[in-house]
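Reopening this ticket.

The earlier resolution said the output was attached, but the attachment link was broken on my side. Pasting everything inline this time so it's all in one place.
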Amino acid sequence: MVEERREQGPSAGTGSAAYPEVSDEVLESWQYIVNEVAGRLNVPVGQIMRRRGPELAVCVTNDDARNPHAVGEAAALEGSGLYCEAVLREGVPLLVPNAVADPSWDGNPSLARHGLASYLGYPIRWPDGTLFGTLCVLDDREKAYTRQDRDVMGLMRDLIESNLRTLCGR
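Inline output:
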């Protein structure tokens, strides 16, 4: 059983006294990560989503003309139907090979607005275990992510969490 850990308070994870702001230098390294992950997994969208209180915002997104998302886009987290909402709620990775064939994803905004039918996402945590957000990739076609794909995502998530530990001085 996975222990669920949730952020506390309205400003959790927003650069408050408990959590430092993410530096430009770190954001640049994360840009490389999302570009590399999207390229290796051959998907149009790779991004880091950040939880900011009641919202989920695009923190970094890959450079690809097919990617419909922009840094700073945000949506209400609770009840959004976003794939990332499920990752943050459950605190574990999520693989959706084809949301079109899965009625539980009816109304998913990524599918409805952009046709992004497949998803692979991993939770990212601050050093104290509080959820920062997600590292995720999306595709507009069915995709059975391989063990190697999942390993790459896990390693990149670990690197991002290492950056967060460094920012927090741990």
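Reporter confirms the inline version is readable. Strands lie at 45-52, 55-61, 74-76, 94-96, 118-125, 131-139. The chain has four helices and six strands.
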